[in-house]
Specification:
single chain, about 160 residues, mainly alpha, 2 domains, 4 helices, about 0% strand, elongated, transmembrane helix, DUF1003, membrane, transmembrane
């Protein structure tokens, strides 16, 4: 029995040549735009006008009544619209959740960095206060010179340094 060509072998899975490739990000972005439009007042106004015209044309033209009173065709159109709108809205919500999660992580990192910077500055400020406390100020030097002048003039007894 002759060997079948590679593309016709039954013991091997088919290579996905017929698969439609699409960019998930572009599809999700388009779905998000549609979902945003579905939530606008403009869309609701247009849909209301279409329903009113649909019902008016069905009642006005007795011979061309393509969708009699229970308006089954109109209900079918709404059901089809809802079947497509719900997944698009969920996809848009998932993308928004992903963006919110990224923003929250960035905010958390920024808050941690700000806290670390604040703690560093507090330690530096404390070190400066300690260092300034050990530095002789002008008022301290003036008082010591006045005291020494009084000791030299004999107006005051010398103090013993304390250690």
């Amino acid at each position: 029995m002759p060997e079948l060509p590679e593309s016709r072998r039954l013991d091997q899975p088919l290579v996905a040549r017929r698969r439609i490739d699409f960019d998930p990000s572009a599809f999700a972005s388009a779905a998000e735009r549609v979902a945003r439009y579905l939530g606008t007042g403009r869309y609701l106004a247009i849909q209301t006008v279409i329903v009113i015209v649909w019902i008016a044309l069905n009642f006005a033209s007795w011979r061309l009544q393509w969708d009699p009173y229970p308006f089954i065709l109109l209900n079918l159109a709404f059901s089809t619209q809802a079947a497509y709108a719900a997944p698009l809205i969920l996809l848009a919500q998932n993308r928004q959740d992903d963006r919110d999660r990224v923003a929250l992580d960035e905010d958390r990192r920024r808050a941690e960095r700000t806290k670390a910077d604040t703690e560093f500055l507090a330690r530096e400020l404390a070190a400066l206060r300690i260092a300034v406390g050990e530095v002789a100020t002008r008022d301290y030097l003036r008082s010591e010179l006045d005291r020494l002048a009084a000791v030299v003039e004999g107006k005051q007894k010398p103090r013993r340094p304390t250690r």
